[in-house]
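During the reporting period, we have paired protein sequences with backbone structure tokens. One record among many follows, to show the layout:
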Amino acid sequence: MIDILLNNDNDISIVNGDFQIGESEQQEIESILIAFKGEFKNTPLLGAEVPRMLKARNTRQGITREINEQLKYDGFSRIDFKIEDAENFTINAQRDAP
């Protein structure tokens, strides 16, 4: 999906005085992972709340289940991820073509 991109500070990325656009699925996944429920106005139940889950020392299974549910809720499928530890994990997910 092509959309306006965000910079490392999660702010709109501006290059040469214009919005930077490009492939946005990876940043959407990142946004869902760090978001808390209620942060997205149109989908108030969306948000995996991973920072809270890590502080609460949830199990790997609990975090995995929540990430799967939240990404599916936003329309992602073919979700594949590996969690090594709290700092190292990889998530690949794609939406089905309309």
Q: What stands out?
A: Helices lie at 25-34, 50-55, 60-73. Strands lie at 2-4, 14-15, 18-19, 21-23, 76-85, 88-95. The chain has one domain: 25-95.
